[in-house]
Amino acid sequence: MIVGAQWGDEGKGKVVDLLARESDIVARYNGGPNAGHTIVAGGETWKLRHMPSGILWGKECVIGAGCVVDPGVFVEELDEFERRGMSTERVRLSGNAHVIMPWHLAIDRGSERRLGKLKIGTTRRGIGPTYADKAYRLGIRLQDLFDPKILRQKIEVALAEKNVWLERVYGDTPLELEELAARYESHAQRLRPYLADTSLLVDRALRSGKDVLFEGAHGTLLDIDHGTYPFVTSSPTLSGGAATGIGIGPTRIDAVTGVAKAYVTRVGEGPFPTEIEGPEQERVRELGGEFGTVTGRERRCGWLDLVALRYAVRLNGITALALTKLDVLSSFAELPVCLRYRLPSGGETGDFPAHQSDFHHCRPVYETLPGWSEPIDEIEDFGDLPEPARRYVEFVERELEVDVTLIGTGAERERVLARAGAAAAA
Ligand code: GDP
Ligand code: IMO
Ligand code: MG
């Protein structure tokens, strides 16, 4: 199980790609095209939206019931892979996954516009409205696309409400039944071969001793229940979500690798205690190439936050950590690491605050570690890292009491250092 331990974009795609080689199935269980996972392999860059990051190794790739799918985006993704000579034959889609419809996109956009300064800063991919309709039991599922009568009826029922909303609340143009029915029926033809009972498929694979890698999207602090609500996404992002999102028991997950950057980034609005003040933020952004895969937005950058990371270890049951982008920190003379938060009441805590106001108004308490100036991207062994870089990693391990088994030293697939325990974690 691979899970994002911060606010997303930790480098999960790269880590999943790395471990997928030794796995039989790679399964996504949450979210939709709000995810953007970049993999750089053999000089080529792949940007995945829905697609599980096992695709490059030709592994069986599952998109589970807990995901939401935008058929138009997914078809584009399939076409792109085929065009670049990658087979998509082994992709499997759950018929229970909900469909992102055009009204969801329009409502996401309209709602953000209306919220103005209070906006969430969503990716505008219709994620929130789709999950809301799912909970409201008004959603359209992938399996509905394959029966034209059911599809038409469901679109008609939805439009009766959504068009009123679009026109009256957001001043948007209403959507047209015939056009939508035809467009989604055509998507259905393209998607039909991929449909499968993905819960059964994963269960059978596990029973026959195969290795299944669950790929979490987004990050711990974007979790709908335990994240920095309301500045979160609308799906469960934690490791526990894999069980419900795929349809297997929680006892089937035996190891959880949390992926964290050696610093922190966040896209969109919301509190961020270790966000760097001053020009160093820009420097981290430039060195780390911190611009969103999905929206191209600047990612906000901060120093490593061990309070938040400790929370991620707790929420996900993390058994090993992958610390990515350590190379980006080369050439900083000093590296502040947040160990505790100073609360508005004056006290300090090493535990993530349970109350939102404490988190919104806390100040980070840093310990400053020495940096290093030599590039580390060519290094192949942990022992050959500059002493301060090793100490940085060991500091994280000691504070969190979790082994760092993988260290990212560059975007390319090969730029990674594996340490003892990595095999067990995989
Ligand atoms: P994800 O959403 O968690 O899969 O992460 P993203 O792909 O959105 O963002 C991570 C970015 O960092 C991507 O552009 C990766 O190619 C890149 N990346 C991943 N690991 C490393 C690393 O160790 N070093 C550097 N320099 N880049 C990395
Ligand atoms: P990956 O999988 C970074 C953030 C958005 C916004 C909030 C809600 O690439 O790590 P949404 O569109 O989901 O309703 O937006 O969540 N967000 C992400 N930030 N990486 C992601 O995914 C994200 N998915 C959602 O920026 O703040
Ligand atoms: Mg991303």
Task: Give a verbal description of the structure.
- The protein has helices at 12-20, 71-83, 102-115, 127-136, 148-169, 177-191, 198-207, 241-246, 279-288, 306-316, 356-361, 387-400, 422-425; strands at 2-4, 25-28, 37-41, 44-48, 60-63, 68-69, 91-94, 98-99, 195-196, 212-215, 257-261, 264-266, 300-302, 320-324, 334-342, 348-349, 363-370, 404-408, 416-418.
- The chain is of the alpha/beta class and 426 residues long.
- Helix 3 crosses helix 4 (127-136), helix 3 (102-115) packs parallel to helix 5 and helix 5 (148-169) packs across helix 6 (177-191).
- The longest helix has 22 residues, at 148-169.
- The termini are close together.
- Residues 422-426 have low confidence and may be disordered.
- Magnesium ion (MG) binds at residues 8-9, 36-37, 293.
- 6-O-phosphoryl inosine monophosphate (IMO) binds next to helix 4.
Summarize the structure.
With 426 residues, this protein is of the alpha/beta class. The chain is built from 13 helices and 19 strands.
Unreliable runs, pLDDT <50, ≥5 residues? 422-426
Average predicted confidence as pLDDT: 96
Instruction: List the bound ligands.
Output: guanosine-5'-diphosphate, 6-O-phosphoryl inosine monophosphate, magnesium ion
Helical residues, percent? 25-40%
Shape: globular
Briefly note the structural class of the backbone.
Answer: alpha/beta
Number of helices: 13
Largest sheet: 5 strands, mixed
CA radius of gyration is 22 Å
Strand content: 15-25%
Describe the secondary structure blueprint for this structure:
Blueprint (H helix, E strand, L loop, with lengths): L1 E3 L7 H9 L4 E4 L8 E5 L2 E5 L11 E4 L4 E2 L1 H13 L7 E4 L3 E2 L2 H14 L11 H10 L11 H22 L7 H15 L3 E2 L1 H10 L4 E4 L25 H6 L10 E5 L2 E3 L12 H10 L11 E3 L3 H11 L3 E5 L9 E9 L5 E2 L6 H6 L1 E8 L16 H14 L3 E5 L7 E3 L3 H4 L1
Parallel strand pairs: 1-11, 2-5, 2-10, 5-7, 6-8, 7-9, 11-14, 14-18
Antiparallel strand pairs: 3-4, 12-13, 15-16, 15-17, 18-19
Helix pairs in contact: 3-4, 3-5, 5-6
The structure holds guanosine-5'-diphosphate, 6-O-phosphoryl inosine monophosphate and magnesium ion.
The site of guanosine-5'-diphosphate has 23 residues, from α1 and β3.
